[in-house]
Amino acid sequence: MKNICFYFQIHQPFRLKHYPFFGIGQDHYYYDEFQTEDRIRELVEKSYLPANRIIAEMIRSSNGKFKCAFSISGIALEQFEFFAPEMIDSFKELAKTGSVEFLAETYAHSLASVYDQDEFVEQVNRHARKIENLFGKKPTVFRNSELIYSDEIGETVARMGYKAMLMEEVKYVMGWKSPNKLYHNPIYPKLKLLIRNNKLSDDISFRFSDTSWSDYPLTAEKYLSWISGMPDDEKIVNVWMGYEAFGFIQRAENGIFEFLKALPYHALEQGVAFMLPSEAIKKLESVEAPATLYPTSWSGSKDISAWNGNDLQQEALKKLYAVSERVKLSKDKPLLHDWLLLQSTDNFRYMSHSDAYGTHYSSPYEAFTNYMNVLADFLDRVEAQYPTSVENEELNALLKTINNQEKEIQRLEEELKKARSQKTSAK
Fold this sequence. Notes:
- The protein is of the alpha/beta class.
- Helices cover 51% and strands 11% of the residues.
- It is globular, with a radius of gyration of 23 Å.
């Protein structure tokens, strides 16, 4: 039997306000709340909430046979909590159905997996805790920001306890191999790899309403016939896209929601099932994936040059991650929150000369100048707490001492709690 693994990504950055050079040292709030709220509200009303309602209906009408997964960045979850709390409620209802899975990712939708492994691990753990607190289940499958993957990153993810990771279909890596199979990491075989089917994902996300496309119009019946007609050894088709494909990129008036609603009926008719990522890794046999030595992504070029491909981006990333160790020593909550928001991949994509998707700047240079002004103020705040005159070795020793003290305090608190419990029981 053929299986479809649907996965939808939700991420939106906190957009930076116009921040002039003269704001450095004077203004420590960096965000355009009006623009951020307008963007998230538009997406909620046109896309996210209507799609959630339809998916809930699809799950009910199929008796739970329709299934899908979501990866929602911590930054996007914060925006829902601030500006659209109905989305949190809606996702909680979907979580109760048992037909929806929530994946782990970096909290800030960052490039930490490439630039700072400790920060990467910390963000993933933070995101997993938030998902568990909100939706009641700890994630077991990992999806990196922008589907960034390499075997080395995969090994780190495996050592963190994740059972599977999502990866883009990249022709220069996959060669003749089909994306419609379950693979495993060549370094750490326990980590399973699910590979996105580029064509079938983009057929929905980008080509659905294109009247010049040879397969226009795309119907659910036609789409499912392509999948059911695949070779017998291709058991799983991974269809992944940004959730805004429904109702925003592909507008409601073009029939995208009707297409979505029709999928379970035609899947049943053609003998195609729906499968969650965590189910796929239990039910399917895996084969070794080709080596992926350098980071790949789902950007147009399939590498990470959309975020670090020019001098502007590299300079910004270098200066940001240079203070990582110092930031980790801080207990200043506003500073730590800014640290997360400034790592969002969007800030660097806006600096791209060729792939500045979603930008609100007039040029990459404007995006770079604005970001660097903000970063300069942020770095001044970090410098005030932990001056650069203090060597990194001293900072590392201090950080180790602080961490050890925190662990000791936690251990003593647990012992005290246990002693009090025993004393109460003795009475």
